[in-house]
Amino acid sequence: MTSQAPKTPPEQITYANLLFYGSWGAIAILIVTFVVYVSGGFESYIPITEVSKYWSMPVSQYVHEANIPIGWGWATLLGKGDFLNFIGIVLLAGMTIICFIIILPHYVREKDIIFVVLIVLEVLVLCLGASGLLGSGGH
Prior knowledge:
By secondary structure, the protein is mainly alpha-helical. It has helices at residues 10-39, 51-54, 59-65, 81-84, 86-109, 113-131.
């Protein structure tokens, strides 16, 4: 009797590959943007010499004293070296959403309604959480 290992469905392999390479890509972006930040390639919003002044502050106090925008306001500061690394953070955090959106058409074609509903709900919940509408953001 020969036992054969179960075959992994192609959509699961696609999801896993996207998550693997996307996560490593985001980590590479984090490394590059950190190097750009510490090398002074872009002007910083908060000078690197003042960063330690804010380390012990609660988030709400830091945001107030440094005049940092809350919610998605950080996106307006992407031209600053200390906010440039947020690109990698957002990509890393959003990989699940990206993977789900990319594999969704497979389940639609297969008319697998349960998976379509689960994926759509998952994406909606994750997007709602990321939107800031639930009151997160350190205030």
